[in-house]
Amino acid sequence: MASPVRRAVVIGGSMSGLLAALYLRRQGWQVDVFERSPVALVGRGAGIVTHPEMHRAFAELGIDSAHDFGVPVERRLVLDGAGRVICERHYPQTATSWNRLFDLLIAAFGSEHYHLGRDLRGVSQTAEAALAHFADGTTETADLLIGADGFRSSVRALLSPGTQLLYAGYVAWRGLTDEAAVASLLAPAVLENLTFVLPPGEQFLGYPVAGPGNDLRPGRRSWNMVWYRPADEATELPSLLTDEAGHTHEISIPPPLMARRVVAEMHEAGARLLPPSMCAALARIDQPFLQPIYDLESPSMAFGRVALMGDAAFVVRPHVGAGILKAMDDAAALADALAETTDVTAALRAYDARRIAVGRKFVAQARRLGSYLRYRFDTPEQRAMAAYYAEPTRVLAETAVLDFLCAPD
């Protein structure tokens, strides 16, 4: 007699949730994904630097990422305040976009078991099942529940309410514009590569990504920028998160609501701190948006029949450039653990043992890489670490590089 098909409910319909669903479905699980947003997810112009491991994982899932995946980036550059190249490193990678990766994953999973507009309100468990309770009054029962609902995870908040986001002390300004809008402003080497500017206590970088409709043709692509700037949590951050109507938002602020004075102040800082060419390119971005930077370490990734993964478990500052890869590895490890035993709770304990140390490594490395993104230091040790990681050759050698995972604990 055939074994009954096991069912998993995944909370969170972004990339982490889809990765979990695809890995489990490969092993014969019935999987349904529930996303709180009532409309299809779309990235806010986020560029992503990929790693070879990502292509191997996609191939494992039957997804072809060999064609039209992104823009090859061969080198990394650091510019001084006048726009001169002062440091460079050959490090081939592919720059792609959030939208491109999401499109590949949602196409592989399909729409039949992907449910929009389902807002989780509660989680409960019995010895045999996990239950997800939604705002519309419905309940879904499954053998396993996965919290893959991002850095503001509802599942984590329900099961580990004491685990809170920690503000890093700085924000990221992000934006995207058409390559054609900046091609006359930026030197070809700057436009084609991962290019950094390092004002004291700050980091600016820009690189090419696919244009609208995943257009990879030169001249039709987009240019993506990120600018990390310190902002005091008690004084400056609330001002940045206060909208045009005077309402102060928590955690983040929707781009259309950002106060004009906040955007104007950012452009004024660009005129003081960035090379003229970068400042001019920054002015071509129609809707820059603000992202306060946080991190978080969950004390556990397993709660009976409930597992956390991706940003729901560990929120990592962006400097490591491997959030999606970390989620892929979480999903693969979870599927492997579940394949080894029919005891779901035992499998989740094994998954937790395999992945929690890795999550801590990611958080620690990202903190090191961001250690210089501040204007003031409290101790000589802080100042020494900042000086080490702010050195241009170090920035080029360690940003979005995974060698730290091979270092001993």
Describe the structure.
The model has no long low-confidence stretch (mean pLDDT about 95). The longest helix is centred in the last third of the chain and has 26 residues, at about 345-370. By secondary structure, the chain is of the alpha/beta class. The protein has helices spanning about 15-25, 50-60, 100-110, 155-160, 180, 190, 235-240, 260-275, 275-280, 325-340, 345-370, 380-390, 390-400, and strands spanning about 5-10, 30-35, 45-50, 70-80, 85-95, 115, 120-125, 130-135, 140, 145, 165-180, 195, 205-210, 220-230, 290-295, 300-305, 305-310, 315. Helix 1 packs parallel to helix 10 (about 325-340) and helix 10 (about 325-340) runs antiparallel to helix 11 (about 345-370). The strands form three sheets. The protein has a nine-stranded mixed beta sheet. It is about 35% helix and about 25% strand.
List the helices and strands and how they pair.
Layout: E1 7-11, H1 15-26, E2 30-34, E3 47-49, H2 52-60, E4 71-79, E5 85-97, H3 98-109, E6 114-115, E7 120-125, E8 130-134, E9 139-142, E10 144-147, H4 154-159, E11 166-178, H5 179-182, H6 188-192, E12 194-197, E13 203-209, E14 222-230, H7 236-240, H8 260-273, H9 276-282, E15 289-297, E16 302-303, E17 306-308, E18 314-315, H10 323-339, H11 344-369, H12 380-390, H13 392-398
Parallel strand pairs: 1-2, 1-10, 2-6, 4-12, 10-17
Antiparallel strand pairs: 3-5, 4-5, 7-8, 8-9, 11-14, 11-15, 12-13, 13-14, 15-18, 16-17
Helix pairs in contact: 1-3, 1-10, 10-11
